[in-house]
């Protein structure tokens, strides 16, 4: 691709050989002909056939730019790698398991185009979750605690489909699992965020890489850290003399 893309879709993947080809084709179907885009998929050192599938897809899909970590670094690191490599000013993210629907991307773009210029993040909101009952319950509890602690007025920060401005993201403090707290972090920088209802689907193949207890344990530590970042933040309006 020679033209500078108007949108970069960043997808972190780890052991998603059963989902990635269909996801790429769905992204192409949702966006080709609407705008110039690129698909930056970051393989976080998968142990299955994900890398081979991406290599084959690259020959078929000119918009695709697959990258690969030499060792597993986690989802937030993979997203950061993709955003840093992206060429567009705006980024859309999707999870690699196929549960996010690429058909929602035009809706997020429409919400951006209709919003005020100080809205820099459009977060997907899974109104009807397609997960197990235990996972839905754990997510509801975690979201309630997070909203009370961070006051980010966001019903669903765990949804992988988001649209945001690249420059703002790259200016955020970087830490593991930061992708779960993007609304609060964007608001910390003085920007507004909006939640947009999106579709949610059952996982097509493979298994989740996180258990409920693992999410809860890590989430408690992260919440305290993000709350500290918000309390310690000092911003100053600047004017030219």
From TrEMBL:
Residue span(s) of domain Glycosyltransferase 2-like: 8-169
InterPro entries attached to this UniProt entry: Glyco_trans_2-like (IPR001173), Glycosyltransferase_2 (IPR050256), Nucleotide-diphossugar_trans (IPR029044)
Pfam families named in the record: Glycos_transf_2
GO molecular function terms attached to this record: undecaprenyl-phosphate 4-deoxy-4-formamido-L-arabinose transferase activity
Keywords of the record: Cell membrane, Glycosyltransferase, Lipopolysaccharide biosynthesis, Membrane, Transferase, Transmembrane, Transmembrane helix
Record carries keyword DNA-binding: no
One of the record's GO cellular component terms: plasma membrane
GO annotation (BP), single: lipopolysaccharide biosynthetic process
PANTHER family: UNDECAPRENYL-PHOSPHATE 4-DEOXY-4-FORMAMIDO-L-ARABINOSE TRANSFERASE, UNDECAPRENYL-PHOSPHATE 4-DEOXY-4-FORMAMIDO-L-ARABINOSE TRANSFERASE-RELATED
Protein name: Glycosyltransferase 2-like domain-containing protein
Source organism of this protein record: Arenimonas composti TR7-09 = DSM 18010
């Amino acid at each position: 691709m020679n033209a500078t893309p108007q949108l970069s879709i960043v997808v972190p993947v780890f052991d998603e050989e059963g989902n990635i080809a269909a996801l790429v084709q769905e992204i192409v179907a949702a966006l080709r002909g609407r705008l110039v885009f690129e698909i930056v998929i970051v393989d976080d050192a998968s142990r299955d056939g994900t890398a081979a599938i991406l290599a084959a897809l690259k020959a078929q899909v000119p918009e695709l730019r697959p990258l690969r970590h030499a060792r597993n670094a986690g989802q937030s690191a993979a997203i950061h790698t993709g955003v840093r490599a992206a060429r567009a000013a705006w980024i859309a993210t999707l999870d690699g398991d196929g549960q996010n629907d690429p058909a929602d991307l035009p809706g997020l773009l429409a919400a951006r185009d209709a919003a005020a210029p100080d809205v820099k993040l459009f977060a997907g909101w899974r109104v009807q979750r397609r997960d197990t009952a235990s996972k839905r319950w754990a997510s509801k509890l975690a979201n309630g605690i997070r909203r009370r602690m961070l006051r980010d007025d966001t019903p669903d920060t765990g949804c992988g489909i988001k649209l945001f401005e690249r420059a703002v993201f790259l200016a955020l403090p970087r830490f593991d699992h930061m992708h779960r707290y993007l609304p609060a972090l964007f608001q910390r920088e003085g920007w507004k965020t909006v939640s947009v209802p999106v579709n949610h689907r059952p996982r097509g193949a493979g298994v989740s890489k996180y258990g409920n207890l693992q999410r809860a344990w890590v989430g408690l530590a992260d919440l305290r850290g993000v709350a500290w970042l918000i309390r310690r933040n000092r911003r100053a309006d600047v004017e030219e003399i």
